[in-house]
């Protein structure tokens, strides 16, 4: 589903990704770990077309991100093409980013109606069943301001799912939450992982990584230091940098 080959990204003189190689297969859950500033957010923003790569090759579901190959040449994608690709990728941020003037249900319905031009009645059915899936059926009419952080994040996940994405990206989805609200969001994410969704999750939640991740990638300073199944990377890390990091967050 995602294939990164020697992906590099610079902001001016600062090279923040220095040759990333990794792959995520369909139905797999990958967690990305690493100290602040190691390039995790930048990497998932590249996948979602929020930044463009400086060098290397990045594909999602076999399609190049940002470019189209035609007769051996690369052409930048048109805005409509980028929008089409982005519509198939769901992203959940640290801050829930719900529209404050819309109810939970309206938030979830907005993109399928506005972007995909789907009939309202169809979207409504799907949105209601997603609200149920994230345990928020009784809050469909509530505005974000009246919801806890955990509830807002669950609505944000339902909103992303309502576009029926083939890939879900999570950027530290629980790190802005009060500790007692983390579990309810992780439970929704675990349920999603078990349903077969392909997911890339930037998180420091080791329990989540151990329980549901197929692979754990430890990044530092713009490179992948170590990658493998959680039973290896988290339990028996080979590199000193990984060992130090894990001993600090556990
Ligand atoms: P992480 O998610 O691992 O904390 P980030 O991907 O957010 O790391 O950041 C990696 C580095 O890139 C940091 O040094 C950050 O300051 C820098 N960076 C991120 N976005 C930008 C930007 N738009 N312009 C300049 N520097 C940036």
Task: Explain what this protein looks like in three dimensions.
It is a single chain. The protein is α/β, with parallel strands linked by helices and 250 residues long. It has helices at 40-47, 79-86, 104-114, 120-133, 149-161, 179-194, 206-212, 230-233, 240-249; strands at 2-11, 14-24, 29-33, 55-60, 63-64, 67-70, 73-76, 89-92, 167-171, 199-202, 215-220, 223-228. A hairpin with a 2-residue loop joins strand 11 (215-220) and strand 12. Adenosine-5'-diphosphate is lined by residues 11, 14, 16, 34, 36-42.
Précis, in short:
The protein is built from nine helices and twelve strands. By secondary structure, the chain is α/β, with parallel strands linked by helices.
- Order of adjacent strands in the largest pleated sheet: 8-9-10-3-11-12
Main beta-sheet annotation: 6 strands, mixed
Mean pLDDT: 94
Number of helices: 9
What letter string, H or E per element, gives the SSE order? EEEHEEEEHEHHHEHEHEEHH
Distance, first to last CA:
30 Å
Could you name the ranges where pLDDT drops below 50 across 5 or more consecutive residues?
Answer: none
Distinct small-molecule ligands in the complex: adenosine-5'-diphosphate
Given helix and strand content, the structural type is alpha/beta
**Rounded radius of gyration (Å):** 18 Å
Helical content class? 25-40%
Number of strands: 12
How is this fold's topology laid out?
Layout: E1 2-11, E2 14-24, E3 29-33, H1 40-47, E4 55-60, E5 63-64, E6 67-70, E7 73-76, H2 79-86, E8 89-92, H3 104-114, H4 120-133, H5 149-161, E9 167-171, H6 179-194, E10 199-202, H7 206-212, E11 215-220, E12 223-228, H8 230-233, H9 240-249
Parallel strand pairs: 3-10, 3-11, 8-9, 9-10
Antiparallel strand pairs: 1-2, 1-4, 4-5, 6-7, 11-12
Helix pairs in contact: 3-4, 3-5, 4-5, 5-6
The structure holds adenosine-5'-diphosphate.
Adenosine-5'-diphosphate binds next to strand 2 and helix 1.
């Amino acid at each position: 589903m995602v294939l990164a080959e020697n992906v590099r990204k610079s902001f001016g003189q600062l090279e923040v990704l220095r040759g990333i190689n990794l792959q995520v297969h369909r139905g797999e859950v990958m967690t990305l770990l690493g100290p602040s500033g190691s390039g995790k957010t930048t990497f998932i923003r590249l996948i979602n077309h929020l930044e463009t790569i400086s060098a290397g090759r990045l594909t999602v579901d076999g399609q190049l991100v940002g470019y189209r190959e035609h007769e051996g040449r690369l052409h930048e994608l048109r805005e409509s093409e980028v929008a089409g690709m982005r519509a198939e990728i769901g992203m959940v941020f640290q801050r829930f980013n719900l529209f404050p003037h819309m109810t939970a249900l309206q938030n979830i319905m907005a993109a399928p109606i506005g972007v995909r031009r789907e009939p309202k009645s169809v979207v409504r059915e799907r949105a209601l069943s997603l609200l149920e899936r994230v345990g928020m059926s009784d809050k469909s009419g509530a505005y974000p301001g009246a919801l806890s952080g955990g509830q807002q994040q669950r609505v944000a996940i339902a909103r992303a799912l309502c576009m029926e994405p083939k890939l879900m990206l999570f950027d530290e989805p629980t790190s802005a939450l009060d500790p007692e609200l983390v579990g309810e969001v992780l439970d929704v994410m675990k349920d999603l992982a078990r349903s077969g969704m392909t997911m890339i999750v930037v998180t420091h939640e080791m329990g989540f990584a151990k329980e549901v991740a197929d692979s754990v990638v430890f990044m530092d300073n713009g490179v992948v230091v170590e990658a493998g199944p959680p039973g290896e990377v988290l339990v028996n890390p080979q590199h000193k940098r990984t060992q130090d990091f894990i001993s600090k967050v556990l």
